[in-house]
Write a structure and sequence with these properties.
single chain; about 300 residues; mainly beta; Jelly Rolls; 2 domains; 7-stranded antiparallel beta sheet; 6-stranded antiparallel beta sheet; globular
Length: about 300
């Protein structure tokens, strides 16, 4: 096997080792793995953390607000039933109580209070992602009082319909039908401007369970920044990708066998994506920033089909 941690000019764009020191340890949600912030990539205006939820977590997300938009996604580890979360979760958005038991995403506008978040039931592990838009300073979460217990339950004090910020079912609108035997087709769109008008970011993801043919080609986005994540689904080995793959960035061929996040500022070519070995299904997620729809994403892809 090739050296999976090759040092190259473009290695800095790939975050292979998450920061697991930023947040308190939470029983049932440990470790909390930060895969993008301005410490891991200086200057980046985003924060992403990922966690496996392996048992009902102790209360730890209390009512709080920050001055940045956020997206939360809770998704299934069952690639055969990707919408069945395996848990029941309640949360409060500006005092509005909601409950869900399927893979679900939440858009939390800046200044809107979130919490508490409580796990009512848990039948199987699932994955939780927190994505802050507009700052890479992860300390805004601790400063918000998120981890500070509050007395009583929050009250809704306005007439806003907060269901508009909850995506309970994905759009199935992207992917290559030729890859269907190896990779989820269509993939699942869990955030777009079609689903939530307040949001202008496109997020799609799906499971890969076999060697993908044909490989995903090289591409360059000239108008939008992008974040790409590959994340395993083994809660007993939370950093394991479950496979061995190549993801080129710029001029360099990078290889991975652990979870990784790639920061792709506009104009930086990437791909092809080539899979060499898959032992366990894992997630591939694309986040197109400030592009609200799959059409904006696809129209800006600029594929190079002849790159080996």
């Amino acid at each position: 096997m090739a050296d999976l941690k090759s040092i190259s000019e473009y290695e800095k764009y790939a975050i292979r080792q998450p920061d697991m020191t930023l947040f308190p340890k939470v029983k049932g949600r440990e470790p909390i793995m930060t895969y993008l912030n301005n410490r891991l990539f200086p200057g980046v205006p985003y924060h992403i953390d990922m966690s496996f939820i392996t048992s009902k977590p102790e209360p730890h997300i209390f009512e709080h607000a920050i001055d940045y938009d956020r997206i939360y996604i809770f998704w299934s580890t069952d690639h055969k039933n990707p919408q069945l979360l395996g848990a029941t979760i309640e949360c409060y958005i500006n005092g509005y109580r909601t409950e869900f038991s399927n893979t679900t995403s939440l858009f939390i506008p800046k200044g809107v209070r979130l919490g508490p978040v409580n796990w009512l039931k848990l039948n199987r592990p699932h994955i939780m992602m927190e994505f802050i838009i507009g700052t890479g300073d992860s300390s805004v979460l601790k400063a918000s009082g998120m981890f500070d217990p509050k007395d009583g339950l929050p009250q809704k004090r306005d007439d806003i319909n907060y269901e508009q910020y909850i995506i309970r079912s994905p759009l199935r609108e992207a992917g290559n039908p030729m890859q269907g035997p190896y990779r989820m087709y269509p993939t699942m769109t869990y955030m777009s401007s079609r689903q939530c008008k307040a949001n202008n970011n496109y997020i799609e993801f799906g499971y890969i369970w076999d060697i993908v043919e044909p490989p995903l080609p090289r591409m360059t986005h000239y108008n939008f920044d992008e974040i790409v994540l590959h994340f395993g689904n083994d809660p007993d080995n939370p950093a394991s990708l479950g496979g061995h793959m190549r993801f080129d960035v710029g001029k360099d061929k990078l290889e991975f066998d652990t979870n990784f996040c790639v920061w792709l500022p506009r104009g930086l070519s990437h791909g092809p994506l080539i899979w060499y070995d898959i032992k366990r299904p894992f997630i591939e997620m694309a986040i197109m920033l400030n592009a609200g729809t799959v059409e904006e994403y696809a129209n800006d892809a600029n594929f190079e089909l002849d790159v080996k």
